[in-house]
Design brief:
The structure holds two protein chains of two kinds. Chain A is mostly helical. Chain A is about 45% helix and about 0% strand. In chain A, about 35% of the residues are buried. Chain B is α/β, with parallel strands linked by helices. The two termini of chain B are about 15 Å apart. The chains are: A mainly alpha, B alpha/beta.
């Protein structure tokens, strides 16, 4: 999935949830291009935790089939942006 | 355990099974295991292999087994075990029910009634796929959460033909998966449980890499999958252990144990290993009491063939 023009605030929010859920130290940078497995060494269990937290936080169901394609922070942010409920709804 | 002659035996059984099934099923079952006992009598090499394995098991578990008698019955049960549920293929429900003695069904029903689905925790002990066959016959909503089993009945294979997000096909596990695939798989299994289904999986799966813990089983230290513990904690679904023995009278005895709960914070507290070891201790006790149902366990380490 190619990076999209996802708002920086959303990317930062996603990054914060990833950091907290997978206990990534503060010194490790997480940007929109960061890959969850290759760059952050997130294992499958942590990835489950990240997905569940993102689902809860954004009130979005992340389909299991989509997970293997959500490799980078930008991918997650774009997925959530396309599906999250509109503000005020 | 060597697989020499396995294909010959498979071909033989494939040809004769339709006729064997016409016999009263307990008799048919003893006939099939009789092939194994005959092989044991005829082959010195096979007798030696089984007796050495059983002797080792006896020492490790500090038991008083009659090694030749256990070895002979184990050799017979090996063939019946490998036949999986093929003996019941195409057989009417009323005949199949006569093959099963079931204890603890109320534990399973009580677990299911909690509305969180249920992990049915099996193993490679005894007739390990027969509880699943029975569950389908009794119309429980079941999904397998393991590698796709081969050489099974058409009855079981038909139940794998389910579509949609809770479909069976996507729940089969591959050992080739990467973390994202594993995560996707676990999420799918969790969704299945939350929908109130039974998830049938094994608690004695040797695995490598993530989501594994080291544990001792039958005198050996190995790494076992902890996925069932993680799922149980995540979903708060009750876990019901099941064991299915191949009995001397040719029938299958299915035993469901009382349900238990894995605390939600067990993975966080680093307790997954403890739950795996608890299960393996119970499984070892089954082997101690019923060594003729130990299947491949005494041969583990000699072969990398892992039976689904």
């Amino acid at each position: 999935m190619t990076p999209t023009m996802t708002e920086p605030a959303l990317v930062a929010e996603v990054a914060a949830i990833i950091r907290q859920s997978a206990k990534i130290p503060a010194r490790v940078p997480i940007t929109s291009a960061t890959r969850l497995v290759e760059d952050l060494a997130i294992d499958s269990l942590d990835l489950v935790g990240v997905i569940l937290q993102l689902q809860d936080h954004f009130d979005v169901v992340i389909e299991e089939d989509a997970v293997p394609n959500l490799c980078r922070v930008a991918d997650l942010a774009a997925y959530l942006a396309a599906r999250r409920p509109a503000v005020g709804s | 355990m060597e697989r020499r002659g396995l294909n010959i035996r498979k071909g033989f059984l494939k040809f004769w099974l339709p006729m064997i099934r016409a016999l009263p099923l307990p008799v048919a079952s003893r006939f099939v295991s009789g092939i194994g006992r005959l092989e044991y009598r005829v082959s010195h090499r096979l007798r030696q292999a089984f007796q050495q394995a059983v002797e080792h098991g006896r020492e490790v578990l500090a038991c008083q087994w009659d090694v030749p008698a256990v070895s002979r019955e184990l050799a017979g049960n090996h063939i019946l075990w490998r036949t999986r549920d093929l003996l019941l293929d195409g057989v009417a429900d009323h005949r199949v029910r006569e093959m099963f003695v079931v204890s603890g069904r109320h534990h399973l029903d009580a677990a299911l009634s909690r509305g969180r689905g249920c992990l049915v925790l099996a193993s490679h002990f005894g007739a390990h796929l027969l509880p699943a066959h029975w569950l389908f016959r009794e119309q429980y909503p079941v999904r397998f959460y393991m590698e796709r089993p081969r050489h099974i009945s058409r009855f079981l294979a038909r139940h794998f033909d389910t579509d949609g997000p809770l479909g069976q096909e996507k729940l089969f596990i591959s050992r080739q998966g990467v973390p994202a695939d594993s995560a996707s798989s676990i999420l799918r299994a969790a969704r299945t449980l939350k929908a109130g289904l039974l998830l049938y999986l094994a608690g004695d799966v040797r695995w490598t890499g993530q989501l594994t813990e080291s544990a001792r089983f039958l005198g050996r230290t190995m790494r076992f999958s902890t996925t069932w513990v993680v799922l149980a904690a995540m979903t708060e679904a009750p876990v019901v252990m099941v064991f299915c023995r191949m009995e001397p009278d040719g029938r299958y005895h299915i035993e469901f144990l009382p349900p238990f709960q894995v605390p939600k914070d067990a993975p966080e507290k680093g307790e997954t290993g403890r739950w795996v070891r608890n299960f393996l201790a119970i499984l070892e006790d089954q082997v101690r009491r019923y060594p003729t149902n130990s299947n491949d366990y005494f041969f583990w380490g000699e072969s990398e063939d892992l039976v689904a």
